[in-house]
Amino acid sequence: MDDTIYYKRTIVKELVPSVSLGEERPVRVFLPPGYQELLTYPVIYCQDGEQFFNFGRIVTHMNRLIFDEGVEPAIIVGVDVNTAVRTSEYAPEGERFEAYTHFFARELLPFIESKYPVRTTPAERILAGDSLGGTVSLHLALDYRSLFCNVISLSGAFLRESRERIEREIDLSWLRLYMLIGLDEQEVVTERGTFDFLEANRSAKKLLEERSCRMTYEEKPGKHLWGFWQNELPAAMKLFLK
């Protein structure tokens, strides 16, 4: 098969108005090969949208899965973030966290669903994020469970606040989670300090399992980098797409 088909893409750039954030938030929307407005599609919502598209190569992965493995086409929505305020939006103790999660659930979803034929059941929505993007994705699922039940976490920053949030739950059997963590992520330098992400993910895994979360958990040699996550993303996507 000619490789060029993997790299053809239709990406629409949108500005989503947000009262919660007091601004318009740029998003990029990938429409899969053969896209038709008369059909409906599962949808992947990515934190760090620009990075998922550029460094995660999620569009190329989606095309390969469609053409090579017969995976059902999905629309992909990448939500951009300003790196200067990323931690305050994605970290649960961040000053913009509540505004961002409210924007995501109550402003972004209606905007996308009014313009694109995405499916609107929790089972057909997938949240994806790396590092703190994995954190905010899990919190979105926990806080808006009527909207989300599928999460892809690439080296999620499941630090104390997130583990305490999981501990407040009793039954997480409704939640499907893919967790990837690198064996070389024991000293990850962040804005909030240096943390052992491997141990944090192991601790979060235990808490989630105790609450019957349906989980695929993988530890592999890898650092806290897109070079690691990019290669594991297709398998994660396949778990949630028919």
Compact overview of the structure:
With 242 residues, the protein is α/β, with parallel strands linked by helices.
Q: What Rg do the Cα atoms give?
A: 17 Å
Helix content: 25-40%
Mean pLDDT: 96
* Category from helices, strands and their pairing: alpha/beta
Number of structurally distinct domains? 1
Tell me, what is the CATH class? Alpha Beta
Bulk shape = globular
The fourth-level CATH homologous superfamily is Alpha/Beta hydrolase fold, catalytic domain
CATH architecture: 3-Layer(aba) Sandwich
What does this 3D model show about the protein?
With 242 residues, the chain is α/β, with parallel strands linked by helices. The chain has one domain: Rossmann fold. Helices cover 39% and strands 24% of the residues. It is built from 9 helices and 10 strands. The chain is globular and about 45 Å long. Its EC number is 3.2.1.8. InterPro entries: AB_hydrolase_fold (IPR029058), Esterase-like (IPR000801), Mycobacterial_A85_antigen (IPR050583). It is an enzyme of class 3 (hydrolase).
